[in-house]
Input
Amino acid sequence: MLSEILTSESFWFWTLVIIQSGLIIWFVETANPVAAGVTLGTLIVGIAFFPTQWEHAGLSGLHDMSFPAWLLNNAWVLLAGIGCYLFAGIAWAIFRWWLLVRQVRDTYERSKADWLAPGNLRCTATMLRSHAEHCPETTLREKYLLWSEACRMAAAEGGHQLTCELKPIWKDYVTNGSRL
Amino acid sequence: MVPGYDQRQARTGLAGLTKPDPKDRAAQIVAWAICWPWNLAWTICVYNPFRYIAEFLLKEIQSALFEISNGQFSAIEQDLTLDPLPPPYPIPAPQPQQTETATKASIEVTNVSAQPVDDESPAVTGSVPEKQPVASSVSAQSVSIEIATANSVESIPQTNDKNEQAASGTPTSQPVAAEALPGNSPADLQEEVEAELAEDGSPDSYNWAPPASTAFVPLSNQPLRAVKYETDSAVPAKPGKATTPPKPADDPWLEKKFPNQ
Output
């Protein structure tokens, strides 16, 4: 049973397709277009080693003629297919860019909503006061005290509002994270 | 350290958030374009783009509906807005209020018939009343000139632009006109006094003219009338007189009667 599976052309064909697809996805996610293109090329070339699977790829005409003759007969179809593929790729890239920016914005909005929650504002106020107590610099200490008071007031008013007093604290949080 | 603060930061991952730049991510965009079928499958499986698409469409539809309602109700909202609007009528110009009472400078000139008055006469040099000792005042003639001061021109409250322009357009440095000086004095002496006062530049020599009141010209209530011109006449027809085009002579078609007429 196992020997039949391992000797079948179909098994190795689909194994090749799956592995190559995984590699392509990996290279695309890691922003490596050269490796992704090479992997795509090897996948196309690898199909040539599985003549029994050509029908699945729509290449059944290769059985009747040589590869150069098949290229000449289907040149316009091939060019049109490549053009459509690239056009669809550009359209997809634009949509994917929109999706990426949307994800970044969504992450930002969720983080802001979490940060402006009254409980988090109270925690931030306590943390800023603790920073101020241990800060030797007078200017920095006054700034932390001011920010702490702003957070405390915003939490007392219910939170969920990025007021003018909270904006510098939020900007510092976004820029530097917790390293205030 | 407040517990949970760093955990939240680690969860959000907002540190160093910057606006995505396509130039910085050109390689990834090219990879998306080249291997789009695989990236499409991966994105659908992992990132669930339908949620973002649905949210985007929902917001777009919502904003479009708001735009429609705002466009239709803008006039109604303007009608129901109770904000104070400027009055549609012009504000009458207030009369100038002088904070200081008009002072009267009296110049008394002694003209002795025996001694001719020259330009260097000390009797007319000062604006304050001066009295010259009369040696032989047989035919002495006293001339009194009253000058109204207008030191409070700047203190007039301005109500609208026209009054402001009128006040600024009024030259305050011009000398006192001869007509503004009451009193029956000889013309030559009056001119000399004017010249002296103008040279002094004292506030007493200024003349202030009140700004012209704002004239309100009401719009005509007469409706617009349409004027009808005769098409065949070269000049417009006078009202009440209908013009008929002259009939050409020797036209057989005009004399012909048709059965349907």
Q: What stands out?
A: The longest strand of chain B covers residues 109-111. The interface with chain A takes residues 1-2, 4-6, 8-9, 12-17, 20, 22, 25, 27-36, 38-43, 47, 49, 52, 56 of chain B (CB under 8 Å). The first helix of chain B runs from residue 5 to 12. The CA atoms of residues 220 and 251 of chain B lie 50 Å apart.
